[in-house]
Design brief:
The protein is α+β, with helices and mostly antiparallel strands. It has 16 helices and 16 strands. Helices cover about 40% and strands about 20% of the residues. Bound molecules: histidyl-adenosine monophosphate. The site of histidyl-adenosine monophosphate has 28 residues, from β6, β10, β11 and α12.
């Protein structure tokens, strides 16, 4: 778990703002769910997934309830849906931290942020296209170029079960040539063996059956419609029939956005898919569902690697320097802030030199200087810090009551640092 200081904290906040802009323009409304839920809510993610069996931060609270910090949002959103029964279709977006007890490394943390969307109550393949497109458009808004969209379908529930059986048979026939880790995975969840990156497994994964042979006609038609919709919008994708997502609730369309700059174990920038049985398993009516979550921390690493979505300039407009005792700084800074001019100041009545140094460090566009002369004359001096001069002068005095209008005019012309 990490602390986020500026400018990282600012970048993270802006990331969420841009995401909200993109999805709210498509009719999604924000949902805020609790950080903590009954353990049973997350158990629905699947008892064959590491997220549930190994990585949950769960504990018994003072009221003897077995609870867990959320490892993801989808189960919480479905729990909220069952509780509130909103009208359909229900389109929501969210952002916030999740907790998984994983081995920390670059791009993998025990507390990490996600932004995401979920839609409940619509079966239409056009919705799959909409959801995927929103993820894609968001990456474009960030400026990311090296993102690959991988697409698959896990078929209808019966298809998936028959495929899992076929995989089990295939990998069991390989016997001890399969890595020890994959043999352990095979016993729990044959699908996840396809995720193995171990050298000794590669050949057997390549020869494993693919899911398309098990698709029902309905699943195959749905998948073809999704592909056609993405093509109609000019969104490039790769069909990857061995793409398995880490969570058990997926049915039908699944997808992942893969970055080009991170290690392969952490290169999934985001992913999602359909989970048509999840609401039912939480006690609700049969309800179609689809969504995605994007890893904020990882996507920001990818942005830094590609040199896009830099931290915005957070420096103030004006820095107040007062060598007359500090009361003037108190008043003037307050007036500037009230007028919407971002302002900071020096403290402790330091020397002019020390205060000017602080003004410089702050990155402010202008220093507003109040010395004994200014105080006596009822003026303040303005010194342009970024441009060096305004109309040839390095510093000029204005009447105290004209400071704000002067600064407002000057700020319209000043370059951002
Ligand atoms: P997920 O694939 O488990 O899916 O997580 C989505 C994204 O969260 C990942 O692609 C990754 O970027 C980020 N992420 C996951 N674990 C970590 C970690 N330990 N450290 C940093 N980033 C991480 C879900 O969570 C599903 N709820 C997505 C979904 C929504 N499916 C349908 N609707």
């Amino acid at each position: 778990m990490r602390d986020l200081l500026a400018p990282e904290s600012v970048r993270t906040r802006r990331f969420t703002t841009v995401f909200a802009d993109v999805v709210e323009a498509a009719g999604y409304q924000q949902i805020v769910t609790p950080l903590l839920e009954d353990l049973d809510v997350f158990a629905r993610i699947g008892d064959a997934t590491d997220v549930v069996t190994k990585e949950m931060y769960d504990f018994v609270d003072k009221g003897d309830r077995h609870v867990a910090l959320r490892p993801e949002f989808t189960a919480s959103v479905c729990r909220a849906f069952v509780e509130h029964r909103p009208t359909l279709p229900w389109k929501v977006w969210y952002s916030g931290p999740n907790f998984r007890y994983e081995k920390p490394q670059r791009g993998r943390y025990r507390q990490f942020d996600q932004v995401g969307i979920e839609v409940l109550g619509v079966d239409d393949p056009h919705l799959d296209v909409e959801v995927i497109t929103l993820g894609w458009d968001f990456y474009r808004r960030l400026g990311l170029r090296q993102v690959t969209l991988l697409l698959n379908s896990l078929g209808e529930p019966g298809d998936r079960a028959r495929y899992v059986d076929a995989l089990r048979t295939h990998f069991e026939a390989v016997g001890t040539a399969l890595s020890e880790q994959s043999r352990a995975t095979l016993a729990r969840n044959p699908l996840r063996v396809l995720d193995s990156k171990r050298g000794e497994d590669v050949e057997f994964i390549a020869s494993a059956p693919t899911i398309d042979a098990f698709w029902s006609p309905t699943a195959a038609t749905h998948f073809r419609s999704v592909c056609a919709g993405l093509e109609a919008l000019g969104i490039r994708f790769e069909v990857n029939l061995k793409l398995v997502r880490g969570l058990d609730y997926y049915r039908g369309t699944t997808f992942e956005f893969v970055g080009g700059t991170l290690d392969s174990a952490q290169n999934a920038l985001g992913g999602g898919g359909r989970y048509d049985g999840l609401v039912e398993s939480l006690g609700g009516p049969p309800t179609a569902g689809i969504g995605f979550a994007l890893g904020v921390d990882r996507t920001l690493i990818a942005c830094a690697d590609e040199g896009v979505f830099a931290a915005p300039d957070m420096s103030v407009d004006a820095f107040v320097v007062d060598t007359t005792g500090g009361t003037q700084a108190l008043i003037v800074t307050n007036q500037l802030r009230a007028a919407g001019i971002a302002a900071d100041r020096a403290y402790d009545n330091r020397s002019m030199k020390a205060q000017m140094k602080a003004a410089n460090r702050s990155g402010a566009a202008f220093a507003v200087i109040i010395g004994d002369d200014e105080l006596a004359a009822g003026t303040v001096s303005i010194r342009p810090m970024r441009t060096g001069t305004v109309e040839g002068s390095e510093q000029f005095a204005v009447a105290g009551n004209e400071l704000i209008t002067n600064l407002q005019t000057l700020l319209k012309e000043v370059p951002t640092s």
